Amino acid sequence: MRVWIAALCVTASAGLAPAQTAPATPTRLTPVVMPFASAPVPRVVTAPALLDVKGELLPRPRLRVAKGFSIELGAKVQGDLSRFDPVVDKDDEDFGWRRRRLGVKGELFGRIDFEVEREFSDGRDPWRDVYVDLKAADVFAVKVGHFRVPFSLDGLTGSTSHDFVNRSLIARALAPGRDLGVMVHGGTTGRLLTYALGAFDSDTPKLRSEQSFDDDKGAASFGRTFGGRVTSQPFDRLDDLPRGLRNLELGGSVAWSTVPEGLNSVRGRSVYGYAFFAPVYVNGDRVRAGVDAVVRAGPTSVRAEWLGSWDERLEQGLGDVDLPRAFGRGWYVAGTWLVTGEEKDEEVRPKRPFLQGGIGAVEVAARYEQLGFGSVSSDGEPAFTNPRAANLLRNRDDVVTIGLTWYLNRWFKAQGNAIHESFDDPTRAPIQGRATYWSYVGRLQFAL
Length: 448
Description:
Layout: H1 2-15, E1 31-34, E2 43-46, E3 49-51, E4 57-65, E5 69-85, E6 95-108, E7 112-119, E8 127-137, E9 140-148, H2 153-156, H3 169-174, E10 178-187, E11 194-201, E12 224-232, H4 243-246, E13 249-262, E14 268-269, E15 275-277, E16 282-297, E17 300-313, E18 323-338, E19 361-375, E20 395-407, E21 412-423, E22 436-447
Antiparallel strand pairs: 1-2, 3-4, 4-5, 5-6, 5-22, 6-7, 7-8, 8-9, 9-10, 10-11, 11-12, 12-13, 13-16, 14-15, 16-17, 17-18, 18-19, 19-20, 20-21, 21-22
């Protein structure tokens, strides 16, 4: 805890310093001579840098060793306070640490990137990104370690870069999370085309009895998974087009894996993890696919995504007959507007940070999403909730989220979301017989 407090204090003092104190000329770092007993010539290590060559504050402290090696410290702290109407579980109405994360990133000779990140709020599965990325060229690199399967726009968005407190339902329920694997990836200049293709093997030796609904872990995976994703900005170099159209990015994702026999299907959970569609018996292949689009124009952005997942149910019916595939599918569309006029990007930088001549940046956002489950069955068959039914009785969660975000500076932000949920089948809602719910959540975030 002392480490977290020290990091917060150092960053806050840097962020609250008057803007005019930054030097107008490039900052020169004083070499620090570090003698080594076994080396006849001292090695030169530059002190940790807080300013870039233009004299602007760097997002995080960086240490350079000679010319070919650099390493930087990263930290993420998020705390949430939630309220519900009606209250489903009183224990949920409390302040809790959503993330307390510390990590390092580094680069070696411009060809090797690495990262090690640990989550201190998760005693069961604390490691997040732990990988080495070998770059042969812009169009070809190889990544090895523990990281996210390349699937889903929202699932791959960094945990501190979200426009809302929670990821979309489809990303949490349908997209695979992090796993051990190897991935080839790259892209052309100007992001005309990027690609990623990987093979992963679950780092858990036993099957997980309950699918995680942590919005930073993704859906549970079993065994081997193959995933791929491509994106394109087709109008990136057409300067005559409107700026928003030039920034249009289209994406597509696919994934294939196998699921063992049992109650191992994808399952439906609400925004705060309450079950509205129970797992069913599956056996065979799991196929996932998705398409997405995002466009940014000045202070505004719009993004949309559709994801689907289909599980085979081989020999799961009476007499070991094959049953129609079980599915989970959904979509969302979201929009944001920085009312203070900053450029919308993955990292929002206030023009006038709080207590540095301004109030920071203020953003409003809205998202509508759906997530539903059922089975691929012919019309007219009776539907049941039995996990071995040929035609599974469907259920769906419709969610509207209204959000407000205050970026104090590049490290601190505060978010508030009002969330309305509506379930098709009230008998399988968090409170049986009630179809609609409101929840309210506030978040404080520090990201270095």
